[in-house]
Design brief:
With 343 residues, this protein is mostly helical. Helix content is 67%, strand content 3%. It is built from 13 helices and four strands. The radius of gyration is 19 Å and the shape is globular. The protein starts with a helix and ends with a helix.
Length: 343
């Protein structure tokens, strides 16, 4: 099948099927949980009772359609550069299975009557990350490109593995912590994946047809979800959505050989949800003898809501505009360097 047709299938099917599933929520009573509210989270009471865990639907749509157009309909098994051996194709398939595993662990928590212990969720995140990091090292290699310049270096496999595990865990939890404002986590995830795709596409040799197909499926699928999640939201992605989105953002950056790009695309997640995780972690490790950001309510979106009195829509707008400007400036700088022949 012509590549353009496969792109069209991914784009249209991802959007349309997600829209239909979220409109009717088939099997809602069996599949979904309902929001219990978040302790200490500003404004979380308005979400109590809403269907949660709908990430189960849109992540499945994304994964199934990606698998069909990448591996079933005229699969691409040989590509240029890093992708010649076909190892990347196998690695991508296994990586999508890891996304599924992360989604399932979050979904089981979403639908449970009582919230899972955070240590159990953390252990499951670590387990998935350990396997995924091995997949990345074995199938993609350890060469790392600097997206803005196109220069590269090779890391020691053990060091690469350890850093990949850390990246997965940080991205999973930072994305999850950001999911406290309607539309925020989904929009930031969309921006992150799109920016990664755009920079890898500009470099040409850092992206293959399957990465394009996965991106072209991911973006409209998340857009369809956001139509139901913008304020006032009708439903919530839950851990099934936020944890698997965080995992995929990191995995896609590694697949495109630009894992350091997470310091750009993940900066909004790190500034919003990441500081909350850091604050809690340091506080527990020091038995609350060291409290970071004492005068700031975390996550950052709670600071804006509680102390700055921002509306939900204004918080979303401020954080998304900031993320968009960061991504735009990075892409613009990379483009300028290539025009000038520096990169």
């Amino acid at each position: 099948m012509d590549f353009i047709y496969k792109m069209a299938i991914g784009c249209v099917a991802g959007f349309a099927i997600t829209m239909i599933l979220l409109r009717f929520l088939p099997g809602e009573k069996l599949i979904l949980g309902h929001d219990r509210g978040r302790k200490f989270a500003q404004g979380s009471e308005v979400n109590v009772g809403k269907p949660t865990g709908v990430g189960f639907y849109f992540i499945l749509v994304f994964l199934i359609i990606s698998a069909v157009i990448c591996f079933i309909i005229d699969p691409v098994t040989s590509e240029k550069g890093f992708f010649e051996s076909g190892n990347a194709v196998t690695g991508l398939g296994l990586g999508l299975i890891a996304v599924l595993a992360e989604m399932v662990t979050g979904w089981l928590d979403d639908r449970s009557k009582n919230p899972w212990n955070e240590y159990i969720k953390g252990a499951l995140d670590v387990a998935v990350s350990l396997v995924a990091a091995f997949i990345c090292v074995h199938f993609f290699g350890t060469r790392v490109y600097i997206a803005i310049t196109g220069t590269y270096f090779d890391l020691n496999p053990v060091l690469f593995y350890v850093l990949a595990v850390i990246l997965f865990i940080v991205s999973i939890n930072a994305t999850n912590a950001t999911d406290g404002i309607d539309g925020l986590s989904g929009t930031l995830s969309l921006l992150g994946v799109f920016t990664t795709f755009l920079l890898a596409f500009m470099a040409d040799s850092l992206i293959d047809d399957n990465a394009i197909l996965v991106s072209i499926t991911f973006i409209p699928t998340i857009l369809a979800y956001l139509l139901y999640n913008f304020h006032p939201s009708k439903m919530l992605m839950g851990d099934a959505g936020s944890r698997s989105l965080g995992f995929f953002i990191a995995f896609f950056a590694i697949y495109c050989r630009v894992p350091l790009l997470y310091f750009i695309i993940g900066l909004p997640f790190l500034c919003d949800g990441g500081i909350s995780i850091l604050k809690i972690t340091v506080g527990r490790l020091t038995k609350r003898k060291v409290i970071l950001f004492k005068n700031i309510t975390t996550p950052l979106h709670d600071e804006l809501r509680k102390n700055k009195k921002f509306s939900v829509k204004r918080v979303w707008l401020v954080l998304v505009l900031a993320a968009g400007m960061i991504d735009f400036l990075y892409v613009f700088t990379a483009s300028l360097l290539r025009i000038l022949g520096v990169a």
